[in-house]
Structures are given as structure tokens and as C-alpha cells.
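Example for tutorial group B:
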């Protein structure tokens, strides 16, 4: 039986991930920039990303998070995205990584009915449980991002009110 290029690559990736070789982990994480995102194999891709997150190797975090952002639109409930984002928040003090996470949450695709302010309200709803997290870094991150989202809500509601008056 002959494997497709994608199947062969995934076979190598699965064997490399089991090794204790940080260079291979970085190669795997970076390789996701070259995946065919038109047809991701969601179950397999999420499994690989989870394994990379579990390595708890901070050098991987930027590449892992880039992949999370790419996979998020293909996950209807976003639970995996938020859980893996939380795992990265737990261990990073890197403000750039936190900024990437904020941007991803702020732009996570979702169909929200009504005004744009509803989009931001939904994001707050999705991360509000982080406010009671056991980890102080997760709590602080949640407070910060909720403050930013609140500002966006106020701004959007102001724009919405202006639009209503002009009609």
C-alpha cells in the first residue's frame, strides 16, 4: 500500500513528536506554515498541536499559536482553541505571545447576529471563566482582554447609536 505525501509526512511527524528532540519539535511546529489549509485533517492536526503544547517548550509557542489561529476557523465550538491558548498563557511571560493570543481571540471567526458589539460580548462570554482560574497568569490575562473587549463594545455601541440617529 502506498501512502500519499500528506500521509507519509504525518507518519514522520508522529514518530518525531515522540522523540526527545527539541529541534524536531520546532521543525514540526514551523512546518504548519506550509500545510494545505484548504483541507486540513482536523482530528490529526489538533492531535499534533496538543502534543506540541504538552511538550511545554516555550520556544515552540509562537509557531504553535500560529497554527492554533489557522485551525480555529475549522473548529465550530472553539473549545480546543481556548484550552490550548490557556495552556500557553499558563507558562508564558512573553508579551508578544500574549498579544498574539489577544489578537486571535479578538478576530476568532464566528457568526454573531446583530451588531459588532455582540461579537465582542460573545468573546467575553467565552473567556469569562478564566477570571476564576486557579492560575494567576490566566486570571490577569482574562482581566486585561476583557477590559480591551469592553472598550471595543463601548466604541461599537457608540457607532451603532450614531448610525441609528442618521437613519
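The residue assignment follows.
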Amino acid at each position: 500500500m502506498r501512502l500519499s505525501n500528506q500521509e507519509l509526512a504525518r507518519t514522520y511527524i508522529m514518530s518525531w513528536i515522540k522523540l526527545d528532540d527539541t529541534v524536531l519539535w520546532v521543525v514540526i511546529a514551523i512546518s504548519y506554515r506550509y500545510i494545505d489549509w484548504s483541507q486540513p485533517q482536523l482530528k490529526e492536526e489538533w492531535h499534533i498541536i496538543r502534543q506540541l503544547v504538552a511538550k511545554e517548550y516555550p520556544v515552540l509557542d509562537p509557531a504553535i499559536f500560529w497554527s492554533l489561529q489557522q485551525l480555529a476557523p475549522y473548529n465550530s465550538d472553539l473549545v480546543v482553541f481556548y484550552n490550548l491558548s490557556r495552556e500557553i498563557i499558563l507558562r508564558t511571560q512573553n508579551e508578544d505571545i500574549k498579544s498574539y493570543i489577544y489578537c486571535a481571540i479578538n478576530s476568532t471567526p464566528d457568526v454573531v447576529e446583530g451588531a459588532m458589539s455582540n461579537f465582542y460580548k460573545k468573546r467575553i462570554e467565552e473567556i469569562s471563566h478564566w477570571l476564576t482560574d486557579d492560575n494567576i497568569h490566566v486570571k490577569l490575562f482574562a482581566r486585561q482582554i476583557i477590559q480591551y473587549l469592553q472598550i471595543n463594545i463601548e466604541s461599537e455601541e457608540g457607532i451603532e447609536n450614531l448610525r441609528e440617529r442618521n437613519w
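The radius of gyration is 18 Å. Compare this with the pattern of hydrophobic and polar residues in the output above.
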